[in-house]
Automatic annotation (TrEMBL):
InterPro entries in the cross-refs: cNMP-bd_dom, cNMP-bd_dom_sf, RmlC-like_jellyroll
Protein name, UniProt field: Crp/Fnr family transcriptional regulator
SMART domains in UniProt: cNMP
Pfam families, per database record: cNMP_binding (PF00027)
Organism: Mucilaginibacter pankratovii
Domain Cyclic nucleotide-binding positions: 15-134
Length: 197
């Protein structure tokens, strides 16, 4: 499992700033591979987020629970994507979020101190992770803009374009929570889109 996972991560870095031999040799030393069962958590409220997580296979959701017990999905992450609570990870403060496996998953995780070591020792890691964080910020910014300026139906269309295979991997209730609509309304939107014209 570990060799396949490391190969997936190295392939990911090839898209940005490919690593040299010395940099590549650090990956097995600093990242640890884990198999995660469906509905298992890698972060819960009150925990300090100790890892930056790369998804080799599977799917995760990051969510918060309000005072009424309602879940609000903030992010989904699938193969070749990253997930963490950035605030808790960098500030080392207790998190207010859950990160849960939606499917059986394989992940690679790096600890806070090990990532800082890579940043300072090999500047290419700093550049690669800056791109990762910038892309997550852009996704968040786009999502906020959609929530205040785009209809629910168009939010769903944008979701399908962003995550083309997730509509079949996630139950309606999870997608609806992410889009800020009810599962019933989402069902109407989906039926409308498949209805023959």
């Amino acid at each position: 499992m570990e060799d396949i996972s490391i190969a997936a991560l190295l392939k990911f870095f090839e898209k940005y700033f490919p690593l040299n031999h010395a940099e590549r040799s650090e990956i097995p030393e600093k990242f640890s591979a884990r198999s995660i069962k469906r509905r298992s958590f890698i972060l819960q409220p009150g925990d300090i987020c100790k890892y930056f997580t790369f998804i080799v296979s599977g799917c995760f959701r990051q969510y918060a629970v309000d005072e009424n017990g309602k879940e609000h999905n903030l992010q989904f992450a699938v193969e070749n994507e990253w997930i963490t609570d950035l605030s808790s990870f960098y500030n080392e403060d207790p998190s207010g979020l859950y990160i849960e496996a939606v499917e059986p998953s394989v992940i690679l995780q790096i600890k806070h101190d090990d990532l800082l070591y890579l940043y300072t020792t090999y500047h290419k890691f700093d550049r690669n992770f800056r791109i990762i964080v910038e892309r997550k910020y852009i996704d968040l910014q786009n999502r906020v803009m959609q929530n205040i300026s785009v209809t629910a139906e168009n939010r769903y269309v944008n979701f399908i374009n962003r995550y083309p295979d997730l509509a079949n991997r996630l139950p309606n209730i999870q997608i609806a929570s992410y889009l800020g609509i009810t599962p019933e309304f989402l069902s109407k939107v989906r039926k409308k889109r498949v209805r023959p014209s």
